[in-house]
Amino acid sequence: MNYEIIVVGGGHAGIEACLASARLNHKTLLVTGNIDNIADMPCNPSIGGPAKGIVVREIDALGGEMAKNTDKSSLQMKMLNTKKGPAVRALRAQADKVIYKKEMLKTLQNQENLDIKEGLVKELIIKDNKVGGVVLEDGEQIESKAVILTTGTYLKGTILVGDKKTKGGPHGEKASNYLSPFLKKLGFNILRLKTGTPPRIEKSSVDFSKMQKELGSSEDITFSYDNTTALAYKYQLPCYLIYTNETTHQIIKDHLNESSMYGGYVEGVGPRYCPSIEDKVVRFSDKERHQLFLEPESIYYDDLYLQGFSTSMPHYVQEQMVHSLAGLENAKILKYAYAIEYDAIDSRQVKPTLETKIIENLYTAGQINGTSGYEEAAGQGLIAGINASLKLENKSPLILKRNESYIGVLIDDLVTKGVKDPYRLLTSRAEYRLLLRDDNANLRLREYGHKIGLIKDAIYDKFLKKKQDIEELTNLLKETKITPKKEINDILIKLNTSPLKDSITLYDLLKRPELSIEDLINFKELNYNKEELKEVEINIKYEGYIKKSMDEAKKMLELEDKAIPEDINYQDIPNIASEAKEKLESIRPITLGQASRISGVNPADIAILSVYLKKRGI
Amino acid sequence: MQDTIVAISTKLGVGAISIVRVSGAHAISLVNKVFRGKDLTKVKTHTINYGFINNGKEDLDEVLVTVMRAPKTFTREDVVEINCHGGIATTLSIFELLIEQGARKADRGEFTKRAFLNGRIDLTQAESVMDLIESKTESSRKVALSSLEGSLKKYIQSFRNKLKHVLANIEVNIDYPEYYDIEEVTKEELKEVITDLEKDLQNLVKKSEERQIIKNGIKTIIIGRPNVGKSSILNRFLKEDKAIVTDIEGTTRDIVEGSIIFDGIELSLIDTAGIRETDNLAEKIGVEKSLSLIDKANLIIVVLNSSEELTENDKFILDKVKDKNPIIVLNKNDLKPKLTKDKLDFKHVVSTNTNTLNGIDSLKEEIKNMFKLSEIKEDDYTYLANERQLSLAKQALKSLQDAKVSLEKDAPVDIIEVDLKEVFEILGSITGENYSEELLDELFANFCVGK
Questions:
Q1: Are A428 and B451 in contact (CB < 8 Å)?
Q2: Could you tell me if B175 and B197 lie in one domain?
Q3: By CA distance, what is B169's nearest residue in A?
Q4: Is the pLDDT of residue A314 over 50?
Q5: What's the confidence (pLDDT) of residue A227?
């Protein structure tokens, strides 16, 4: 059986990749170590959060699956940062790990053009620097036109607990020990990265009376734009807040050298944003306590996830540590915490399309590119799946820009700057976050999704209607004027805002910080749904700031629109500093904008490069 | 490959020694062709070599030639400097000889440009070097040198550091909303930071604008109705200070009567026609031109005749300059004064007597006070000495003030942060550091967050 596209790895990146390619009518094969672990969440039982939640929205807008599947399996939905501005609001779901897996597997199995096969990939079939399929560990060869590697933490995965090192992936799965040496032979630089996960606690052994309950949002929210049924508030499960204490810290200090990290057993570089509890205690020794959450993993089993307590201590120390926590004095640990090391490639060897620079038609996405997080993986998987398909169709690739999506920021960072520690998306990585909001991901990206073919006409028409409504409502508010009549001013006073002296449009009235768009219903009937009202309200209230961001983005786009030809020879350009030359040579940016973001390439180098391109009439 | 350029690096005719500088791939072989002495292509780098410049027929001059090979040179190219004797004729003939041999006359600032293009210096430094070349006085030379040394950089960095912590804190609040132990940045805190920084930045901009004067000179116009003693004052300045009097006349520049330097500060005196209300068309044009100069000048000196009451013409002039902070000079001849200070509603009024040697000291003193020229002697060189930096600082100030407005309008903290981040970045582009990674480093170094 021959395939057009083979996806290696059934995690969050692999799922989006294989669904995108199959939905775009390419015969697709998903090869994965264990079908039961497809769509597994080996770490925290939640999806979304600041920046990441917006990625999930973007995946939905483009026609991916993560948002829809999260809606099917959510245990709690929470809108974060509601007291802050609209740009940083973000949705997070506690997801049921069992349901998530089950629902996703169903989607995959029902997907036309998609086959699933169990197996570990040993090598790739390569001809003239072009990939032609995969070779499994049992020797079977499967041919294809393109391959997408989404191997997660399985490349030479090693589990670390105290001084014990075990080869393997999460859940004692078999690691893939041949693929990364093979990639190295092809010329990829291999990095060793590390991450970790905290212990799981048996619910029935926990004394919740000593903990603070954390509930979700009471309003009905869904991740997918196309889903209207939200999980009712009354069915949502709570999380619990607890703190470490002096005793916990003392135990950690006493046993520090027994941890894999401090005992010197770890080679990989761990994520800065996700320190283990021993890291926190050591680095922030003046802090009396650290915050932890107990989160539900599934309604089907009794595990609670102890967020904030990831560690590589030996089991007996973990017991002492957990029992020092209030409410967990008698807790039973169902799964011990561990650290995991794995191989990744240098993401600067990957193009903004996620195709590798070394091997044609070979794509990589997710942790193999040095990222961390389900959402970051899924976003890349989707783009890899889309671009592999577009290339087979001889169409131009989808490269999202930094001013239009977090996925664009993520991929641009990866291919331009590379990573030292596992990369996590943060709102601060986006220069134009006021443009990249939770509420407008579909307005930003749905057109792409439709053009590519992942958003069906019926859904797209609905979206167009919404877009039209938003325009209509904006115009209505611009056209409707109210005058300083007594009855009008009486209402304004009742709304705790100052009365009018001159007439004013509703559009300008809404700019008053104390008024919301719902207040305007006192003056004019507004027959629009909540989402549309919200969208227009944000656009009006933050108009000045949004415009400023757009102006900034425009400046960036001027450089972004200047393409650098693929065959450029940097040795031909006199005067570029040799360090910059080296960086440009190895990263081979596709636009002047991307070049300007490479560290070590100075404004002077960009100026010279720009002059050179102009001279050559490019 | 860049061609080889040559320039006379010292001011022609000033000083006992002149330097002719050559830079480029052929610099050494080119000079070697006209050098009688050691074979310069074989001498060690960074050596001074004694010999003669010879045009094939005769020795033009006895010289010392410094040979510096790339890359450890100012331009990162091969550089040769010929120290010759200071006469204009000798220097020019050496210069022309090198051009005959194939060097190209360097454009203005081209050595610096090459240093910049070859990565020898960064943008701030390039700007400083240009300032150094262009500086006419000792004070402005010091300004130019100090930003090379980076005291300016440190000063701006101190502004950025003030912002950095609060920005990182806001980012943590956004990215880790449920870390209750990390305090939320409050609007009061923001207000404090913004107000504080606004003061600093305003101060910097003001100081820098004043110091621009050090570099460019104080564009000064002396106005008054005809025959009140304008030219006597001008002549007093020129005579007494006997400094460089240049007649610069350019199509884009104003006509400068003369430049004088006193106490390290340059006054560029601009000639104006006498101003009076008139119906005569030709005269009107002259008057309009003088009036337009009022807006361009850094300093306006209005001369009045103290032995007469104010005339309608005087009043007309005073009305034109009333918002321009002029110095009013009551110039007395030996006659009994009729016009005194208390009759004028101006802050700066001085009396002069152009007939005595020290007759305009009071005016000079007033100028010094006005431009705080005394401060220049102190070693505070932490201000922006060129237009680009100054305009960036003004932009930063503008964004900061935008942030302040947003704060007053009760905008959410993360919205206010958009402007603050801009301030942070603009300040970074003055100092040449501009990485968002900086913020992330701050964030992870100072806040304990993670799953």
A1: no
A2: yes
A3: A428
A4: yes
A5: 85
Structural domain that includes position A611: 562-615
pLDDT digits (tens, 9 = 90+) for A435-493: 999 999 999 999 999 999 999 999 999 999 999 999 999 999 999 999 999 999 999 99
Nearest by CB: A84 against B176, B414, B450: B414
Q: How confident is the model at residue B228 (pLDDT cuts 50, 70, 90)?
A: confident
In a domain, A190, yes or no: no
**B175:A284 CB<8 A:** no
**Is A543 contained in some domain?**
yes
A124 lies in some domain = no
The closest CB to that of B175, out of A43, A280, A426, belongs to: A426
- List residues bridging with A342 in a β-sheet: A193
Count residue pairs from A and B with Cβ separation < 8 A. Answer: 110
Domain boundary among A496, A521, A548: A548
Taking contacts as CB-CB distances below 8 angstroms, the residues of chain B near A275 are: 448, 450
Cβ pair B450:A88 closer than 8 A: no
The type of residue at B432 is G
Q: Which of B41, B20, B39, B42 is nearest to B97 (CA)?
A: B20
The CATH number of the domain where A491 resides is what? 1.10.10.1800
Both ends of chain A: CA-CA distance in Å?
Answer: 45
Q: Tens of pLDDT along B76-96? A: 899 999 998 866 777 888 988
Question: Does one domain contain both A594 and A502?
Answer: no
A79 and B CB contact within 8 Å: no
Tell me: cis bond preceding B71? Omega within 30 of 0 counts.
yes
Bridge partners of B267?
B218, B260
Select the more confidently predicted residue: A25 or B107: A25
Say how many domains are in chain A. 3
Residue B143 lies in a domain: no
Residue A293, SS3 per DSSP: strand
Contacts of B178 in chain A (CB under 8 A): 80, 214, 291, 293
> Is residue A291 a contact partner of residue A243, using CB atoms and an 8 Å limit?
yes
User: Of all residues in chain A, what percent carry a pLDDT higher than 70?
Assistant: 99
Buried b / exposed e across A403-433, counting CB within 10 Å, b at 16+? bbbbbbbbbbbbbbbbbebbbbbbbbbbbbb
Choose the final residue of a domain: B83, B104, B121: B121
CB contact residues (below 8 A), chain A span 281-320, against chain B: 283-284, 287, 289-291, 293, 307-308, 310
Structural domains of chain B, count:
3
CB-closest option in B1, B123, B175 to A427:
B175
> A429 touching B, CB under 8 A?
yes
The pLDDT of residue A408: 97
Neighbours of A554 (CB within 10 A): 11
Domain that holds residue B332: 214-374
CATH number at residue B307: 3.40.50.300
Task: Tell me which chain B residues have a C-beta less than 8 angstroms from the C-beta of A44.
Answer: 451
Same domain, B338 and B442: no
**How remote is the C-alpha of B11 from its chain's centroid?**
19
Residue B254 pLDDT exceeds 70: no
Last residue of a domain, one of A287, A307, A341: A341
- The pLDDT score that the predictor gives to residue B248 is 34
Element (H, E) at A186: helix A179-186
Which of B167, B417, B435, B451 to probe the A interface (max A CBs under 10 A)? Answer: B451
**The tokens 């040095």 sit on which residue?**
A370
CA atoms within 13 A on the CB side of B375: 15
Q: Which pLDDT score is estimated for B209?
A: 77
Give the β-pairing of A190-197 and A200-202: unpaired
Encode B211-232 in three state secondary structure. HHHHHHCEEEEEECCCCCCHHH
Q: What is the CATH number of the domain that holds A610?
A: 1.10.150.570
Nearest chain A CA: its distance from B185 CA (Å): 11
